[in-house]
Amino acid sequence: MPFYTPKSLLAIAVADLLAGATAGLIGCSTTDEVLSCHNTTEVTDMCCFNYPGGALLQVQFWDTDPATGPTDSWTIHGLWPDYCDGDYGEDCDTSREVSDVQTILEDQGRTDLLEYMEEYWLSDDESDNEFWAHEWNTHGTCINTIDPDCYTDYTDNEEVGDFFQEVVDLFKTLDTYTALSDAGITPSNDATYTLAEFQSALGDIHGGYEVTLLCDDDTVYELYYYFNVYGSAVNGTYEPTSPLEDSSCPTSGIKYPPKDSSSKKTKRAGRSQRGRKNQKA
């Protein structure tokens, strides 16, 4: 996975812009774009301004019991639009809920995307297809800049495929495992690490900003990268920003266990809809 730099962000934004134009998304003028969560006056073009979910979280899992995904990579949880104050909405448009993401992506010819998701976007409880549908229904429908009204010559579920492509593209720029490994933070049954060590390593791929790191007691299992966005969520420019939620890990003694290959679940095995404890899936 590539190292996360402003230059790579620009390249991704340009590529996504071209992809969005092909997909039929209404184009956004860069001269008129406003960074989400940063407007000082009313914004009228809501297809080019993420609101009210102006903070977008790229969420990743480190699953060890059972282990899911490659032993040398974190896996995808989703892309969540949160309000700029840390609150959030869910299930924002029940009329656009889906139950079979796999078939939607196959019908759109996104077989490469689907194959990648089958390796890096896995469930540890329900089927992967159910997990993907949950992420779209709960979070994707809350991203206002990919509403069907933001498309020209819209076709059914067009925005669903665009959503999953964007989540995967963003995930590829945030190689958590390598960033930690480069800083000497590697999975271990014996070693422990400090929260500051994690934040320093991950800040190197997140514009110097901290992330929200979640622990079950003292064992890390999930993290959130926060962004604000210029333009649409699927062809705009993602700018790293500070977290809106505190980490739940201790300041020291954090365990980062290896994925046990003997307990690794097979492809399409299942993922529970867990997320923020007592908050959001």
From TrEMBL:
Stretch list, region Disordered: 240-281
Alphabetical UniProt keywords: Disulfide bond, Endonuclease, Glycoprotein, Hydrolase, Lyase, Nuclease, Signal
Alphabetized Gene3D superfamilies for the sequence: Ribonuclease T2-like
Top-rank lineage group of the source organism: Eukaryota
EC supergroup of this enzyme: lyase
Signal peptide: 1-23
Amino acid composition bias (Polar residues), ranges on this chain: 240-251
Documented EC number(s): 4.6.1.19
Biased composition (Basic residues): 264-281
GO process annotations (BP): RNA catabolic process
Pfam families attached to this UniProt entry: Ribonuclease_T2
Recorded GO CC terms: extracellular region
Active site residues according to the UniProt entry: 77, 135, 139
GO terms of molecular function: hydrolase activity; ribonuclease T2 activity; RNA binding
Family: Belongs to the RNase T2 family.
Annotated protein name in UniProt: ribonuclease T2
UniProt source species: Penicillium malachiteum
